[in-house]
Amino acid sequence: MKISIYHVTVIATILIVVALLFGLGYSEDSNPPVQEYDGLLFPDLDVNDIDKIVLSNIHETVFLNRDGVIWNVGDPVDYPAFQSKVQWFLADLEEAQRGQEVEVADDDLSRLMLADPLSDENQNTSAVKVEISSLSGGYKQSFILGKFDFPDNKPLISIVGERASARRYVRILGEEERVFLTSSSLMRAVPMTRKWINKGVVPIQAFKRISGYSDKGDEWALYRNSRFGKVMGEGSLKEFKADSEFLKNLSMFFEGGYISDVLPSHSLTEVMRTSNHRRFRVEDFDGTIHDFEIGNKTSLSKEHDPANALTDAVLTLTSKPIADNADYLAVTIRIHVPDSIQISDTQMGPFKGGAQRGFLIDEKSLLLILNLFNISEENSKRPHLEKSKS
Question: Which stretches are transmembrane (predicted)?
């Protein structure tokens, strides 16, 4: 019996349809069905009206509040935010694309890291809940950033990295909940206070004198008579010679940017309880005084930062990487400004009114100062060294 071209075409079409149906049925077992959807993820968002942002995961909640044009990190630290980081995050939200709409069953929310992290029983979830609102305009939106969907296109990953090529499940909360698989990974939404604080707010312009003392009775001082004058020592550092490398490293430390984290005020008593307090004071030529006190060693938590799951090919937040073996010291800082200098409370930020603030500083950043204490202690043991009190 002869089979016509028509019959061959019909049979081939049926086989293709069956294969497609089988393929769709198979894929539904592993991935939620998707639907193409063009447009912005937040079409009604006006970032200029947003004055409150809340980022939460199972470990931490960060509050960002806008006062005028200035963003601050709220309780429990109450500290100026890195303004650029907040603006970058808002720009990410404004430009985020919807991508594909996904049908997700309630039972799959936890698996896709889309359950509310504040109530999810899954302690390994990496979900991030984001709440943005405008107190003046009435806008309010909550959503959950869930699991990443990494592409199989290895050449693309090798060029731009996983962060740039990964898609992410986003669950829009509200009366009509929807889930999208978007190419906008929104990686800046990290609920860690230290990712948002302004780490360079205590610069020392030009030091005139540095003096230090410890509970052991060791006192030392370094001073210069002009901004570019020779550095000389006093007390147990009378014989100290400061070379150009020392001055360069000292200037880098004084310019700020060395802060790793901000300590809540209620935790200062514990971390500053030590058998040997080391205190040092830095005086500027303009009369400004910075008082430092070094407390105990402590550590930072790196748990559940979504960035840890991705490569470093594309940076998310411009903060110094945290070394696994780094040691951190609790340090308090207080700034005294003379009456002759006109400075506003806004410029003083967390130090207004002579407030003392606590920080965590990488021990390596403090090595220069710690070495001065060590040299002072060694010199004080030498009976022939003439001591002079600072």
Answer: 5-26
Is the separation of the CB atoms in 319 and 199 below 8 Å?
yes
pLDDT of residue 184: 83
Over the range 283-312, which residues count as b (16 or more CB within 10 Å of their CB) and which as e?
A: bbeeebbbebbbbeeeeeeeebbbbeebee
Question: Of the candidates 30, 184, 29, 160, which has an alpha carbon nearest to the alpha carbon of residue 98?
Answer: 184
Count of CB atoms within 10 A of residue 344's CB? 8
Q: Which of 202, 141, 173, 244 is nearest to 334 (CA)?
A: 202
State both tokens at 109: 């929310």
Quote the pTM value: 0.70
Predicted pLDDT of residue 309: 44
Cβ atoms of 114 and 125 closer than 8 Å: no
> Is the pLDDT higher at 29 or at 296?
296
What residue spans of the chain are helical by DSSP H?
5-28, 83-95, 154-160, 162-165, 244-254, 268-271, 345-348, 367-380
